[in-house]
Amino acid sequence: MPQRKTLIIPNNIALLFIPPYSPELNPSEKIWWRIKRAFTGKVYKSLNGVSDFIEKEVRKLTNEIVKKTCEFEYIVSAPFLD
Description:
Elements: H1 27-39, H2 47-59, H3 63-69, H4 73-76
InterPro entries: RNaseH_sf, Tc1-like_DDE_dom
Protein name: Tc1-like transposase DDE domain-containing protein
GO molecular function: nucleic acid binding
């Protein structure tokens, strides 16, 4: 019988469980949505051009923009944030 390992979660980490497929609840999906929206209507001659575009968009993401973009009610109202 295989040994079971116990996950040790530090006190400053809280796990929030979301349904298996729920991109609308996934903060990273909202960041990609911003980038995809900026990408709409653009045409590049090479994959390098697309890569450069994505890099520039990611560099524009400040801590404040990420926080505002990824702020879900289920996260900001979590009891561990008190």
